[in-house]
Amino acid sequence: MSNRARIDAVQKAASRSIRTFSRPQDAQGRPLRVSSLFGSRTFNSERMRDRVPPEVFAKWVETVEHGRKLDRPVADAIAHAVKEWALEQGVSHFCHWFHPMTGSTAEKHDSFLWFDKDGRPIEKFTGSMLLQSEPDASSFPSGGMRSTFEARGYTAWDPTSPMFIMESPTGRTLCIPSAFLGYHGQALDEKAPLLRSMEALSRSATRLLTALGESTHRVTVTVGPEQEYFLVDRAYAGLRPDLVIAGRSLLGARPPKGQMLEDHYFGSIPVRVQAFMEEVELELHLLGVSAKTRHNEVAPCQFELAPIYAEANLAADHNQLVMQTMRKVAMRHDFMLLLHEKPFAFVNGSGKHINWSLQDSRGENLLDPGKNPQENLRFLTFLAATLLGVYRHAAVLRASIASHGNDFRLGANEAPPAIMSVFLGDFLSRICDGIASGDVSTLDAGQAMIELGINRLPAIAKDNTDRNRTSPFAFTGNKFEFRAVGSSASISFPTTCLNAAVADGIDQIHAWVSEAGGGTAAVMAAVRRALQESTPVRFDGNGYGAEWVIEAERRGLPHARNTPAALAALATDAASDLFKRHGVFSHEELHSRFEVRVEQYNKKVEIEADVLKDIVDVSVLPITIAELAEARAHADVGPAAARRFHELGLRVEAVDAARQALDVALRGVGEGSEAERAAAFCAHVVPALLALREACDATEAMVNDNRWPLPRYREMLFLS
Ligand code: ADP
Ligand code: MG
Q1: CATH code at 636?
Q2: Do 105 and 155 touch, CB atoms closer than 8 A?
Q3: pTM here?
Q4: Residue 645 and residue 519 in one domain
Q5: Is 26 a member of any domain?
Q6: How far is the CA of 465 from the centre of ligand 2 (A)?
Q7: Cβ 462 under 6 angstroms from ligand 1
């Protein structure tokens, strides 16, 4: 056995040339500016307006803005226009593109091919084909919702998310963003509940705004997800079954440098990575995804991409496109994209910060401190409602971000802790404390603002929201940032849960205001009550500190340390009632999310165990034993050789013992319910995997470098 493949990989990675690609050009051969090419592969509203009769366009706008149903003639007209446009673009197939509960996307392609009544081939695409399709969905996870006698579901077009063209080197497909439903209307996907939660929040917020004396016909949820990721040279990744199959390294000795020098964050972007980013951005811009920001992240080989925020469902679709496009383009640049929350021990993991806010129908941000007392009152009301919702439903929000991958990140000294709390910053905290403790019920809005110093809010609040990286949910001037979300996760479920929680907070405030007969004083009193009740969830201190865990417990905040414990919150009456109240999930639908997530957890841990066992059995152990045999042959050369022989013997024993212990832990999981199995995986298998890793890492540090076959951390992280 030798390290030949590994050395080849190092050489390959070191000698890569930079991939170049061609950009769309204008008639003079100059690269098109972004604004000219943006969205050119989408059937966006301009294209719709240009290509359908005005009355059809008007109906479509109504559908999008007011959630009206599309009738068949309108759908037929749109389908025809889309088909003609798609054919001009060289598209041969269409597909309903949807988000099953796997967390990624699914598609089933159909050709436009049809036969007319004389049997001649034609291209056909009708309104009913656009609106609905029936994929055989029996192998998507349904969490027990779909019984085998009605295994089919159907996908339904989401007209608020533009259709787009997906390109492969050999062809083009028209993708129709869709929801995925069972025959009785059960949501089998991530999108339908997200849309419902947006509706619920809009309903609640609109009603509260009316009580505040404002008028809006709709409130939209705006979301901007920042996406962190790692890139590793493909040559290394190919030699690491753990990276290929589990998405993270399951073993690997600590590199000499790590991120100790902290020189990567915002450092200059490596040229090869920049080429990757630019190609990703071009593809995303063509797809109408507003890739905006790019930079290095904290860990070596870690980077971030952020778009300009969009309405939540569109942001969710776009984030899926971001992940898919990055994966595809990474291959072209001989990188492997790692979206896992913790691909490498010893350095930071990756998250996906969901920036979140609310907007009224005039486009005003409801979480933006305003310019006058009325706007400030609105701001305070929605701030208080958010705090109340997050406080009351902290356990659900914690569950919404729970995954095996995120367990390695949350609560480690790099990521938000697993306790939900809200950071407001000094200034806002003082205001909230002032309102919670003072008597404001007799003041009118203008007076209250002055007495509390809130009339200075807009100028001061923005500058005062310093960046507390240790908070899972932070106010950042005019939006909240849900930072605990994992990098590989779909943003749909956490956003759905957040929307429902806040809708609940809003409804509570509305109820209090109504009970008190309305008016500004009633609003201020309700705000005060909400701030008082939610005081425990506000925390501006160091979320990494051990004291916080104790303090949070004293405050009665839920603290689910791992995924099985966190997911249990989805199986409670409180959660079921919350989602039912707002029409987001039926009890059955919610329970299916619980089941699917628990099952995914179990599968992930089981796969990791399989992969690590394999690596240990066919690489680590045989190599270390060969090394030991050689050391024995030379043991009498001198004291150093004798010591090496002795120590290698101990390492072999340690790896072998940990390997046996993993088998015992796996056997102990047994055949119980998925939830019972999850508890066992978490309590016994995950620690056994870690112990085996530690034994292997100690071995790696001793084995002759000429023998070690797996690319090392120092190579993957610093020589990519
Ligand atoms: P950071 O310093 O955290 O990167 P940015 O201002 O760059 O903060 O914003 C990060 C993300 O937040 C971007 O995707 C941005 O579009 C988004 N964002 C900004 N305003 C809002 C808003 N009102 N609602 C939702 N997301 C927003
Ligand atoms: Mg941010």
Answers
A1: 1.20.120.1560
A2: no
A3: 0.95
A4: no
A5: no
A6: 12
A7: no
Q: How far is 131 from 110, CA to CA, in rounded Å?
A: 14
Residue 505 Cβ contacting ligand 1 at under 6 Å = no
Residue 638 in tokens: 């001198």
- Span from the CA of 482 to the centroid of ligand 1 (angstroms): 11
Q: Is the CB of 135 under 6 A from ligand 1?
A: no
pLDDT at 415 over 90: no
Residue 448's pLDDT is 58
Is residue 368 domain-shared with residue 220, that is, in the same domain? yes
Q: Which of 304, 309, 466 to mutate to test the pocket of ligand 1 (most atoms within 8 A of CB)?
A: 309
**CA distance linking residue 466 with residue 513, whole number of Å:** 32
> 341 alpha carbon to ligand 2 midpoint, in Å?
17
Q: What is the pLDDT of residue 466?
A: 54
Average pLDDT, the chain: 91
- What residues have their beta carbon closer than 5 A to ion ligand 2? 353
pLDDT for 458 beyond 50: no
Handedness of CA 708, 713, 718, 720 (dihedral sign): positive
Q: Do 579 and 643 lie in a common domain?
A: no
- pLDDT band at residue 442, thresholds of 50, 70 and 90? very low
Helix (H, G, I), strand (E, B) or coil at 479: coil
Same domain, 136 and 200: no
- Determine the distance separating the centroid of ligand 2 and the alpha carbon of 60, expressed in angstroms: 34
State how far the alpha carbon of 549 is from the alpha carbons of 207, 418, 561, in Å.
38, 9, 11
356 lines ligand 1 (CB under 6 A): yes
Q: Assess whether the C-beta atom of 309 lies below 6 angstroms from ligand 1.
A: yes
Residue 222 near ligand 1, beta carbon < 6 Å? yes
Q: Is the CB of 113 under 6 A from ligand 1?
A: no
Q: Say whether both 542 and 678 belong to one domain.
A: no
- The atom of ligand 1 lying closest to the CA of 365 is 23
Residues 687 and 674 placed together within one structural domain of the fold: yes
Expressed as residue numbers, the domain containing 140 is: 38-189
- CA–CA separation, 385 vs 205, rounded Å? 10
Burial of 124 (0-12, 13-18, 19+ CB in 10 A): middle
560 and 577 share one domain:
yes
Instruction: Decide whether any atom of ligand 1 lies within 6 Å of the 480 Cβ.
Output: no
Q: Which residues contact 159 (CB under 8 A, 6 or more apart)?
A: 60, 63, 64, 70
Q: Is 29 left (phi over 0), alpha (psi -120 to 50) or beta?
A: left
Output the pLDDT for position 142.
77
Measured in degrees and rounded to the nearest 5, phi and psi for residue 176 equal: -110, 105
Pocket test for ligand 1, best of 295, 355, 360, 479 (most atoms within 8 A of CB): 355
